[in-house]
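Translate sequence into structure tokens.
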Amino acid sequence: MDTGVTSGARSSEHKTPQPAADGITSVSSAVDRALAVLCAFSRETPVLGVTEISERLDLTKSTVHRLLQALLARGLVSHDPEKHHYTLGYRILALAQAVPGEATLRQICRPHMQWLHSITEETVGLYVIAGDVRICLDEIESPQMLRMSAGVGRIFPLDRGAAGKALVVDGPSNSSLWRRITASLSAAHTAQLEEELRETRARGYAQTAGETVSGSASIAAPIRGPDGALLAALSVAGPASRFQHEAVTRYAIALLEAVSRIERDLAVAYAPEAPQAASRRDQ
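Result follows.
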């Protein structure tokens, strides 16, 4: 009968049961890997094979295949058996539709984006934070032959580009976001970013040139909800050659006016319902 006391020889043969925390860590790691597989797909790489994903994520092919099979069973990816390629599945669209507030945000911003587009004749974009990056939620391209376009769904760093800086304009005061952004930045880069954000707050909008695409320029302003929370950033982007001082001044006036109108409409959309009159409650 086992008394529960083991000798040194037996302890080398039998593994000590792992604590519950290890099981949680294991599950967390598997979830993180599965999410990394999903995030490997993008506008630039909509179709990927097991080998490509394995190389991108530094995972074994067997691990990637197992993760893809689990995602396939949930409809999150689709598989072409002839070409052995994978794409995102239609279930992703259903999940995207379930993101709270984003559809309403686009709907509220769209007419004001169109107005801003008509004034500037440059590309107007709407960006939101997605983890430690920003994503283009909506965009109206410039009608001009030479123009800049991000593309809806594309992601960019938060520390570069006018829209990125408008989204992190609160700087260190938003401690959790700030830690994520600056974790991989040098001390010098972090200090420079803080200075640029101070200028952005004083000016009311961010202004950059060539930070994400060579030869491009953009300005962007933060959009806040009724409670003061930062919801998105509205940007005007185009070739740097057209973003001279006079043009930027004119664009900025229109940009800030568009943001003001959007915030006004957001306040109306999210205004609390007025309490019913006592006489109606008694009926």
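Note: The two ends are 76 Å apart (CA to CA).
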